[in-house]
Amino acid sequence: MTEATSTPTPQAARPLPADWRDFYALTKPRVMSLVIFTGLCGLLAAPGSIHPVIGFTAIFCIAIGAGGAAALNQWWEADLDAGMKRTAQRPLPDGRMAREDARNFGILISAASVGIMGVAVGWLAAAILAVSIVYYAVIYTIWLKPRTPQNIVIGGGAGAFPPMIGWIAVTGDVTLMPILLFAIIFMWTPPHFWALALFVQSDYAKVGIPMMPVVKGEASTRKQILIYSVLLVPLAASPWFVGGAGAFYGIIALALSLAFLALSVPVATRRAVEGDTMKPEKRLFAFSILYLFALFAVLVVDRVADYQGWPIPGVNL
Question: Which residue, of 19, 97, 251, 278, has the greatest Cβ tally within 10 A?
């Protein structure tokens, strides 16, 4: 298996000395914020208790593990990133860092995250963290992404591990609830990412990445966004259905998911909202991020309210 190759830019041939901001950029901090948040929500929503220092350590390990996987992703895809407008200013394609430095940094912090998680928190959580890193850096980046338009569908598991890891850090075992949290993010990922892919598909086409809109066309992609959005509605509410969360979570999860579905309809039918200059794809993509933050935040509020016996107006907990 070989890396994608292309003629290096003059800047890439003579990398400048990297500073801490370049290494920080390798971790994809915007993506990491969602990883940290869902991991923290999994930890806070789990039954039982965890020492604050150990809990902080677990979230820190999730964060640096995700950052290490992101660094390895950028190391492998440096030449592809150089050919796409939205990624050309990353440290490697912009020539601010040597490629081997990115690789070594990614390996170092990935290994450190797993080792610290195992020693300080537990080896089951560490093992799943290791799986998540390999899933993203190897299975998705090296194997799936350049080979199949189903890359996001199968690769969606990479971003679905954090709440499961946070939950297991508290409980020490795998039960139905962390599996459901994993499944929610797994199902959310295709419509979230394909909404983005629809308005940046020319970038992917230029460098030969077989994203769904490039290979199967816009019509098929839009239809699948709607299908996944429909399936997300009952799945997002499933923690309520199985008794893992209360009515407060269930009602708001259904409302959020129905809003997600409503925004996917104009994407599927190519119909923009009158008077709105934002394309339906961009609107769905923006809401999808808010959706996941809100869904997991409500899960935590529901769990804390139930644990503390707080009354929530209009809902009998």
Answer: 97
Distances, alpha carbon 255 to alpha carbons 9, 10, 90, 109, 236, in Å: 49, 52, 37, 39, 10
Answer whether CATH 1.10.357.140 is correct for domain 17-173: yes
| Domain chopping of the chain, boundaries | 17-173, 175-317
Structure tokens that stand for 226 in this block: 């709607």
Q: First-to-last CA distance in the chain?
A: 55
How is residue 241 written in tokens?
A: 């259905």
* Token reading at 221: 């992609």
Q: Are 90 and 82 within 8 A, CB to CB? A: no
Residue 236 · residue 253 · CB < 8 Å: yes
Two structure tokens written together for 167: 């939950």
Residues 110-135 have pLDDT tens digits of 999 999 999 999 999 999 999 999 99
Q: Residue 116 is inside which H or E element, if any?
A: helix 99-120
d(CA 289, CA 9): 34
The Cα 232–Cα 260 span in angstroms is: 9
